[in-house]
Amino acid sequence: MIEPALQSEPPIDPSFFEELETPQPQGRRGSFTVVVRLSDGEGVEVGEFRDFGTAMEGAQEVIEQFSNANGSWPFYAGRFIRPDLIVSVDVVDA
Fold this sequence. Notes:
The chain is of the alpha+beta class. It has one domain (27-93). It contains two helices and five strands. The chain has helices at 15-21, 52-67, and strands spanning 32-38, 43-49, 75-76, 79-80, 86-93. The relative contact order is 0.22.
């Protein structure tokens, strides 16, 4: 029995996947803010960044500080914040 020949498809451009990996919200450059949301609904702005990628890095640093607090209260925006009050760390278009 003769099997039909398979036709090879052109290779996929790797840049296609790079674009899918890091979706960035539409917005102006230089206008992203990292906000710590507290359990009472209050938002505490902890930094403003020039682009989404830098804001994500800033948000990760905030998360690490709260995760590694070990009983201490990190200081942001002129106040000490008790880690167990945090609901989320948000990156928002300013």
